[in-house]
Amino acid sequence: MEKRRLTSLALMGLGLLAGCAAVQLNPGAAQVRVTTNEPQGCKYLGEVTGNQGNFFTGGFTSNANLETGARNEMKNEAAKLGANTVQMLTNRAGQTGSMSLAGGTGGGSMEQTNVTYTGVAYKCPEPK
User: 31 in a domain, yes or no?
Assistant: First the structure.
């Protein structure tokens, strides 16, 4: 029974560590360019969204990994559509807070726990 409990704890720990790493780029997604301006002379392919983090793993993930992971997931989705450019439309950072009452006084904290990016995927002509 004790060995099973230790195995379960080890697997949960590995799950937390995996949740802390940024989403990796898929092959081909590294060539997807992200811009804030609408690209000209490009074909619209659709909207894409990237997200990293949640209320459970977000507190254990660095802000940099939350942002990188969300951007990587958005680029992965764009690459699946055949896009080489994404115009960023929105970026949102979610926060989770906690409250505690101890000894008649209250306290709390807020931390960033997830990041979501939304954009428009385009296929643009390759520069000559």
Answer: no
Contact yes or no for 78/118 (Cβ under 8 A) = no
Angle at 45 between CA 41 and CA 51, to 5 degrees: 120
Least confident of 15-19, 25-29, 33-37, 39-43: 15-19
Element (H, E) at 46: strand 43-53
> In this structure, what CATH number is given to the domain that contains residue 85?
3.30.110.70
Q: How many domains does the chain have?
A: 1
CB atoms within 10 A of CB 48: 23
Please indicate, yes or no, if residue 11 is contained in any of the structural domains.
yes
Q: How far is CA 85 from the centre of its chain?
A: 18
Instruction: Give the mean model confidence (pLDDT) for residues 96-109.
Output: 52
Q: Which residue has the tokens 């385009």?
A: 122
Q: Which residues pair with 85 in a beta bridge?
A: 33, 122
pLDDT digits (tens, 9 = 90+) for 37-87: 999 999 999 999 998 875 545 455 677 788 888 999 999 999 999 999 999
Range of the domain at 94: 2-24+36-123
29 located within any domain? no
